[in-house]
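Good morning,

Both structures are done.
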Amino acid sequence: MHIKKQRLLTPGPTPLLPKALHAMMASDVHHRTQDFQKIYRQVLGDLKEVFGTKNDVLPLVSSGSGAMEASISNLFRRGDKVIVCTAGKFGERWVAMTKAFGLNAVVLEEPYGSAVPAQRVADALAANPDARGVFVQASETSTGSSHDVKGMAEAVGKTDAIFIIDAITGLGTMPLDIDGWGLDVVIGGSQKAFMIPPGLGFLSISAKAMEFTKTCDLPHFYFDLKKELKSAQNGESSWTPAVSLIISLGEALKYIKELGMNKLIDNAQLLAKATRAAATEMGLELFSPGSPAASVTAVKSPQGMDSGVIVKGFRNEFGMIIANGQGSMKGQIFRIAHLGYFDFADLFSVVGALELVLNANGYAVPYGKGVAAVQNVYAEAAFPKVTVGA
């Protein structure tokens, strides 16, 4: 009761891979030397392998939002018509960004907790044949929802538009066949399933999208994708890189390659399934039951209880950091992440803590009920030939 280890259970930052954390201590290397160039080239190659694409993948010294901005400022012209999908706070960020750069945004909006259907994108493209781009979140972590990226890609692929996906929490938690589905720009972030601290954004870019750089007239200087691509071919970044993070990323990518990206995704999806099962077993209501994400599970707070009470209870009693709702959902939902360096032993403790916090605040739930639901999901996956509960 007196020692409390802090545990990150948010959709970013996420728990750090120990080897990646330790690797940062060897960051006293100059970024314009052959030693660092060797590391950087390896990281660039491993990023392509982990993303699962033949397209170039560029790391940027920024959060994922920097890579989102770069995808706009390097590829479009002022006044270009684009289709923007939004069903949460991060969809709203796409809307705000595109408008900030003077694009003509056709906004496809769905209520929080829902997702924009792929058919709405197809219909919008048919109604706006001059649209030059489509923007969406693969995983909308403000609500715990996911989008049908494959279905949307099929619609976009029939047009001259490019498809830009914020996969900052989608990478490593859901299948994203970049080359097979024709995903033109896929954006990631270091502090999500990549299991290292914040500070790096990633961006894969197709040949089709690179053609758009030739006609772009929007201002950009630091986030110059053509310049970054040219520098990367020489094993360098255009500007001073985050050396410690690049070295850390190298270890994380090595771990993901050894594990297998498919198993990293499967891990997140199985944890998400178990979290949803536990919440339902405890009589709680899922916020996004129709299109749940595997990066984070959003749960409605019991009636009459502010979700901030649950967030505070986790932090004060157990040193666990979970996320409140964002925007209009603050106080109404709480969010538990399960991506990256997160396992079932973590989830057993999280759900056990949730049972205690709920009981302490007047919502009665039998101890062990939610934990048992998690155990059942684990047992069915890990011991399929053994009778569960025997």
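Second structure follows.
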Amino acid sequence: MRGRWPWLAGLVLLGLAVAVGGAEVALRVVPPPERKAHLVSDPVRHHRLQRSWSGVVQGFPYRTNALGLRDRDIATPKPSGVVRVLMLGDSFTEGGGFPDEDTVPRRAERALRASCAGIEVVNAGTASYSPILEYLTLREIGRAVAPDLVVVNLDMTDVHDDLIRTALAERDAEGLPLRVATDRRRETALLLPPVLPASLRVADEGLGRLLLWQGFRKSGAGRRAFGALNLDEAALRARGLLGDLRYDRLAITRDTPARDEEAAWATTARYLAAMKRDGERLGARFAVVLYPYAHQVAAHESPEGRVVFGIGPGLYASERPFVTAAAIGQRHGFRVITLLETFRRRADPARPLFRSDDIHHTAEGARVMAEGIAAGLLDAALVPGCPR
């Protein structure tokens, strides 16, 4: 009987391995469901808005046009006398949680029309976008929109997002993306915080690539055993991940530089410079708007929302991201409009600019951003046909 125990134990282990392997294969074969009705996976742009869709999103009526933009139907070819501003960005630009008329592009359009006739601001914002996906968007819709000015609203998470999406991208010889396919398993593996000691990081990386492990980590049991997936500042520090752009999404906003921050910014700069070149081929001017997050504006802003992004209490005073972005613009020949001081001047505990439990803008914050964009564009004489 004793001689049979190793044999039986081996059979049990083999059976477990086969069962686990079969389950892993099955999970990889079955396509995951789309997470939101108005968003779909895309083989080139990772994800995009549904085309010609209407419904309710975050409690407000929401519609998209035939190009898959949260906007009106766009006349093609562009009518004579119309000056089009194509505004690219993420959820802050798209305007989730607002009716269409209160989104940043619509507000900016109204502000510009006070000085300029014939202005159309096209809302090309999409949640979780960053320059790598905005570059692909411009290449896809640029000719149809025929912009006179391309504006990229640069987000404080964009350097992190570009870092992750670049790892997923198929790129050309210049390092520019040809496509960023949706691959949730690979993307989750890049984002999943490690749970094993640093000496076992290779094993941690291996586990992170398994859908079974990812599913467990996202479950209630996994979170109880290994902690939350969104680490607060204390957890980031305890695990040695503070300032690590892969896991610390807002590392560029901290008062000390992030690990490999310069290289990460260089990647984002490459995509911005490529958008400028593509915009110029369309006959459009190009500008970048860099806006702050709550913790860069005032200590009282978004006390709960900032925790989700691993940011502690207080004001983070570093102006490093704004200086870096301005230097990139100077190097590549485009204007960077920074809204840090615009937001700080308007900070008022009685009228918060950011939602208390969500890092996004309140209606007042969206108004400040839109008016800041319009003023910056006019001051720089970037809108064709508009006086300063």
